[in-house]
Design goal:
With 89 residues, the protein is α+β, with helices and mostly antiparallel strands. The chain has one helix and five strands.
C-alpha cells in the first residue's frame, strides 16, 4: 500500500475555527498501487480515502465543504518510502 505525506503549503481555514497550519504533515495510505506523488490527488477513490483518513485526524474537509483544499496548490505531496518493498523515494 503506497504511503504519502501531505504537507500544508499555507494556512487552511476550516469552519468552526479549525485551522490547518502551514507545514503541518499528515500521513495517509491509499490502496491503489499505481498511484504516485504526482497523481494521488487526481483519482476520485484515492481522494475520498484521503479525506476519510484526514477526518480521523480532525481535518474534516467534507463536512466543512472544503474538499477543494485537497489539491497540490494547498498540499505538498511526498511519497513515503516503504522499506518492505523498496517502493518510493
Amino acid at each position: 500500500m503506497p504511503n504519502f505525506v501531505l504537507i500544508a503549503k499555507q494556512n487552511l481555514y476550516l469552519d468552526s475555527g479549525k485551522v490547518v497550519t502551514k507545514g503541518t504533515p499528515y500521513e495517509v495510505s491509499v490502496s491503489k498501487k499505481e498511484v504516485n506523488a504526482n497523481n494521488v490527488l487526481l483519482y476520485k477513490d484515492t481522494r475520498e480515502s484521503i479525506m476519510r483518513q484526514l477526518s480521523f485526524k480532525d481535518v474534516d474537509l467534507v463536512s466543512t465543504r472544503k474538499e477543494y483544499y485537497l489539491n497540490r496548490a494547498h498540499f505538498q505531496v511526498q511519497e513515503r518510502k516503504n522499506v518492505l518493498t523498496n517502493r518510493g523515494y
